[in-house]
């Protein structure tokens, strides 16, 4: 039976509460003085305290109750305390609620209200304890690990990061998949930062941002004169990453010739700079990322299957932000940098929005809201999201680079690019027009 402790020097009040709560299945222990209360607390597991504010005849100001409350709060921070007060003590009660009292009830009380207040206080306590437990579990799983500033609360991200940390110390090639802006680079950072290579180089190269004729020179280096414009010897990213890790983002964009060379380095560690016959050997851990379906690219003959198996020894699939809603508010708070709070409507809107641009889009939305909002609280209007702006998305929700990249990866096929961005074909055309990008 759940035990409640009533601290009140008025015996009839204690008895009335015992009867009332017994009917609800609670056992009420009565303390007529602070001393008795401490004894009962030491001897029993108390779930909740109902505390009066005065314990000696003639005392009305509630000072005794205030002192006792602060002592109880300190000794038993996890037990919810509901205060029983006279109307004249409301000001003090407000102070105590701010200091951590769960609630208060004015005497003479209404039975139903009192029961509801106690039930709510117990429920709240249970939720808080569950949250604390989850938080502790999360911290103990990740204790001593470098999470590279990633913020998350969803179970999906917890699992993914656990797997990431498990894989980090091995040399296995890892392929990180997930939509644009979902945080693939962050996962790559965690892999390197928790590997034995953490003190060595971590080199990053975005294949989506490179013209295909420069890719090989970037990856493997080039001797002076190896191609027009190569005026001096250039060290490639594989050489630079020797002993450390190399992160190849948008690996699906690597040319077929580049793929053949990449396969060879992965198999033997060997390669030559462009324009050189000297074979070099490196020890590099490869982390790749893609937001496209590489198996479909294999089907189209654009990506080598043998390379796919090499880079994809283990796959970490990062879910879209909309699939891990528990991360949205913690991330939003991170991006608002505690400068402004969110109204509850704004919080709801953030959680119900579909986030086609994922975390990057959330970051942009928060930055814009910080600039636009005129009060200390960000309203749902300040977010500029479609549900608010007459059903239309703000046109700059997807940045130009992401748009161009999606179009490039889709080989200029607008419907395919739109699908990848999670928007309609018409919506993509409107954004292309907005940025002045000509239709392919
Ligand atoms: N869990 C997170 N905590 C904090 N910041 C995050 C998190 N996830 C993503 N971000 C931030 O969101 C932005 C986009 O993330 P990132 O560049 O890692 O995405 P991506 O999946 O690699 O994108 P792309 O496919 O476009 O290369 C970055 O500014 C990153 O710092």
Topology diagram in text:
Layout: E1 2-7, H1 11-22, E2 26-31, H2 34-43, E3 48-52, H3 63-75, E4 81-85, H4 90-98, E5 103-106, H5 111-142, H6 155-167, E6 174-177, H7 184-193, E7 202-206, H8 212-220, E8 221-222, E9 234-235, H9 237-240, E10 245-249, H10 256-268, E11 270-272, E12 279-281, E13 285-290, H11 294-299, H12 305-311, E14 314-317, H13 328-336, E15 341-342, H14 344-352, H15 358-372, E16 377-378, H16 400-409, H17 414-421, H18 425-435
Helix pairs in contact: 10-12, 13-15, 16-17, 17-18
Bound molecules: adenosine-5'-triphosphate (ATP).
Pfam family, one: HTH_8
GO biological process, one term: phosphorelay signal transduction system
Modified residues (4-aspartylphosphate): 52
Task: Please give a structural write-up.
With 440 residues, this protein is α/β, with parallel strands linked by helices. It has helices at residues 11-22, 34-43, 63-75, 90-98, 111-142, 155-167, 184-193, 212-220, 237-240, 256-268, 294-299, 305-311, 328-336, 344-352, 358-372, 400-409, 414-421, 425-435, and strands at residues 2-7, 26-31, 48-52, 81-85, 103-106, 174-177, 202-206, 221-222, 234-235, 245-249, 270-272, 279-281, 285-290, 314-317, 341-342, 377-378. It is built from 18 helices and 16 strands. Strands 2-1-3-4-5 form a 5-stranded parallel beta sheet, with helices on both faces. Strands 7-10-13-6-14 form a 5-stranded parallel beta sheet. A two-stranded antiparallel sheet has the order 8-9. It is elongated. Adenosine-5'-triphosphate is lined by residues 150-152, 178, 180-186, 249, 291, 331, 334, 359-360, 363. Keywords: ATP-binding, DNA-binding, Nucleotide-binding, Phosphoprotein, Transcription, Transcription regulation. Residues 3-122 form the Response regulatory domain.
């Amino acid at each position: 039976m759940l035990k409640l402790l009533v601290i009140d020097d008025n015996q009839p009040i204690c008895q009335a509460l015992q009867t009332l709560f017994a009917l609800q299945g609670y056992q009420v222990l009565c303390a007529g003085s602070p001393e008795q209360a401490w004894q009962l607390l030491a001897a029993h597991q108390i779930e909740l305290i109902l505390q009066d504010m005065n314990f000696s005849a003639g005392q009305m100001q509630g000072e005794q109750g205030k002192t006792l409350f602060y002592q109880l709060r300190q000794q038993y921070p996890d037990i919810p305390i509901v205060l029983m007060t006279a109307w004249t003590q409301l000001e003090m009660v407000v102070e105590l609620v701010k200091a951590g009292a769960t609630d208060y009830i004015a005497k003479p009380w209404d039975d139903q209200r009192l029961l509801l207040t106690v039930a709510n206080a117990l429920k709240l306590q249970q939720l808080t304890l569950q949250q604390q437990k989850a938080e502790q579990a999360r911290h103990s799983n990740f204790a001593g690990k470098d999470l590279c500033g990633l913020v998350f609360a969803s179970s999906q991200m917890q699992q993914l990061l656990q797997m990431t940390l498990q894989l980090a110390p091995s040399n296995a090639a890892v392929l990180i998949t997930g939509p644009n802006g979902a945080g693939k680079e962050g996962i790559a950072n965690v892999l390197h930062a928790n590997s034995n290579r953490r003190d060595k180089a971590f080199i990053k190269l975005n294949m989506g941002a490179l013209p295909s004729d420069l890719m090989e020179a970037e990856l493997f280096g080039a001797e002076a004169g190896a191609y027009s414009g190569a005026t001096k010897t250039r060290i490639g990213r594989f050489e630079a990453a020797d002993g450390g890790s190399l992160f190849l983002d948008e690996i699906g964009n690597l040319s077929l010739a580049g793929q053949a060379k990449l396969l060879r380095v992965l198999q033997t560690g060997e390669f030559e700079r462009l324009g050189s016959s000297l074979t070099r050997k490196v020890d590099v851990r490869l982390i790749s990322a893609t937001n496209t379906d590489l198996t479909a690219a294999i089907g189209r003959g654009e990506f080598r299957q043998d390379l796919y198996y090499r880079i994809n020894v283990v796959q970490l699939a990062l879910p879209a932000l909309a699939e891990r809603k528990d991360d949205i508010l913690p991330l939003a708070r991170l991006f608002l940098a505690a400068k402004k709070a969110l109204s509850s409507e704004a919080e709801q809107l953030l959680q119900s929005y579909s986030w086609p641009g994922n975390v990057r889009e959330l970051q942009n939305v928060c930055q814009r809201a910080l600039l636009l909002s005129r009060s200390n609280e960000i309203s749902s209007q300040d977010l500029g999201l479609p549900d608010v702006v007459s059903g239309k998305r703000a046109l700059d929700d997807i940045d130009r680079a992401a748009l161009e990249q999606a179009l490039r990866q889709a080989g200029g096929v607008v419907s395919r690019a739109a699908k990848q961005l999670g928007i309609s074909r018409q919506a993509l055309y409107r954004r292309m027009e907005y940025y002045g990008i000509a239709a392919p």
